[in-house]
Amino acid sequence: MITLALSKGRIFEETVPLLRGAGIEVLDDPERSRKLILATNRPEVRVVIVRATDVPTYVQYGGADVGVTGLDTLIEHGADWGGGAGLYQPLDLGIAKCRVSVAVRADFDYASAVRQGSRLRVATKYVNIAREFFAAKGVHVDLIKLYGSMELAPLTGLADAIVDLVSTGNTLKANQLVEVERIMDISSRLVVNQAALKLKQQAIRSVIDAFAAATKATA
Ligand code: AMP
């Protein structure tokens, strides 16, 4: 049995066509069903639905053999868990593309604040990515860890800036925020448990190959 960890939302929706391309149909919709383990048309493949930030953990400790996770989540996880030990990362799936950026209120002069060496309050879910980025720039920051609705932080005076995912930029615009730095481009990656790769080599190789072929076909 091969267990594939996915999170609900964009990653699930964009992985389904790749699975379909690989001849794997998920037999339930996680948006409609409360089931956490979803069968597929292939008796040897099942999907487990976990929180996006838990996908690397499930795969690292063998709760799932393979998983699909954003590079953002993988980097944050890796920084907390010694470089994501035990996780093999064979493929960029090219899905759920976005970027990690710094954004501020439209009336906040970020460039001047940086030039003057001001200490910035930065709210983010991505504390490791943010810490590294501002350290490399030589900007002093106080990081405030949030778990969601980062856009609210500059609007309420909680922070001067946020570090968050941006895709179309519509969410920033709707909240009168502007993107002032692009930290990195993000897409989703296939991750594989290294022990499973050895123990179930053939089955996992065929899943990786099927994902690679489906990724190429939709690129
Ligand atoms: P947008 O308005 O298209 O720029 O999307 C920004 C909002 O969607 C932010 O709240 C992000 O956290 C979220 N978002 C954008 N892209 C992704 C992605 N690939 N994965 C998860 N969340 C995303």
TrEMBL record:
Keywords: Amino-acid biosynthesis, ATP-binding, Cytoplasm, Glycosyltransferase, Histidine biosynthesis, Nucleotide-binding, Transferase. One of its GO terms (biological process) is L-histidine biosynthetic process. CDD domains: PBP2_HisGs (cd13595). Belongs to the ATP phosphoribosyltransferase family. Short subfamily. Pfam families: HisG. HAMAP family: HisG_Short. Its EC number is 2.4.2.17. Residues 51-211 form the ATP phosphoribosyltransferase catalytic domain. GO terms for cellular component: cytoplasm. One of its GO terms (molecular function) is ATP binding. Pathway: Amino-acid biosynthesis; L-histidine biosynthesis; L-histidine from 5-phospho-alpha-D-ribose 1-diphosphate: step 1/9. Lacks the C-terminal regulatory region which is replaced by HisZ. Heteromultimer composed of HisG and HisZ subunits. It comes from the Bacteria. PANTHER family: ATP PHOSPHORIBOSYLTRANSFERASE, ATP PHOSPHORIBOSYLTRANSFERASE ATP-PRTASE. It is an enzyme of class 2 (transferase). This is ATP phosphoribosyltransferase. It is found in: Cytoplasm. NCBIfam families: hisG. It catalyses: 1-(5-phospho-beta-D-ribosyl)-ATP + diphosphate = 5-phospho-alpha-D-ribose 1-diphosphate + ATP. Catalyzes the condensation of ATP and 5-phosphoribose 1-diphosphate to form N'-(5'-phosphoribosyl)-ATP (PR-ATP). Has a crucial role in the pathway because the rate of histidine biosynthesis seems to be controlled primarily by regulation of HisG enzymatic activity. SUPFAM superfamilies: Periplasmic binding protein-like II (SSF53850). The lineage of its organism: Bacteria, Pseudomonadati, Pseudomonadota, Betaproteobacteria, Burkholderiales.
